[in-house]
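Hello,

Our lab assistant flagged a job as stuck in the queue for most of the afternoon. It eventually completed. Since we weren't sure the result was trustworthy after the delay, we are filing this so someone can double-check. Below is the sequence as submitted and the structure that was eventually returned. Let us know if re-running is recommended.
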Amino acid sequence: MEQAELPDIITLLAERIAYEPLRILLLRWETIIYAGMAALFLIGIFWVAGRKRAVIPGKLQGCVEFIVGGIDDFVAGVLGEKGRRFTPFIGTLFLYILVMNLMGLVPLLKSPTADLSTTLALSLCVFFYLQYTAFRELGFLGYFDHMMGKPRGAMRLTLILPVFLLFLHLISEVVRPITLSLRLRSNIWGDDLLLSILSRFGMQGLPLFVFSLLLALIAAVVQSLVFCLLTTVYFALVMHGQDEEKKEVTHGL
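-- returned structure --
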């Protein structure tokens, strides 16, 4: 059966290794290797940019500061000043996903985000950090009160609606990492597959290949933004829930 994806350096290397256990190991850990390469690339860029910081920044330092400042402004614009503590997490997510998305557009490399295991792992990181933040900000009882839609007045005396809302919100919390991971993986995998198919058309398919490559480049950036935007919105729901509870207490006093 003809390979659907473009050849990458790990697959080509594995095909030339006679030692079967090593070949299987490379193919099995292929996605993790590329994800590690993306992480090392980002660590290297930020290490070089921050190694000799100057009052008048150079090109690399200025570019990094511009990106970090933009991410910080975005997070603060959605979550407020208190939400700036989430900038390192959300900013790291954005840059890491962006680099992994773009890796599939580089010859002989592969997008780790085209693998569901990578996107699901990222989504689970968001899920557990979000739950930790919710319990920390709202408290144990406040968390479930928030999940039940904060019933007030006569609604507190009923059980059907609060329990029903709790059930719906719990399902939505569980579904979030699944939808986050599938959305990112499906889009990146689809773009990589399309480029792989168009690359077999030769010179006749070159114009369509270049056009699809530009679309894939835009999609790589957009999907990184969408993943982090949804993550920021999820944190905003927790933060705003806390703010609303404080307003109600203040109003009662």
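-- support follow-up --
The delay was a queue issue, not a problem with the job. The result is valid. The chain has one domain: 9-252. The helical segments are 9-15, 20-28, 30-51, 59-79, 87-103, 116-147, 160-198, 206-252.
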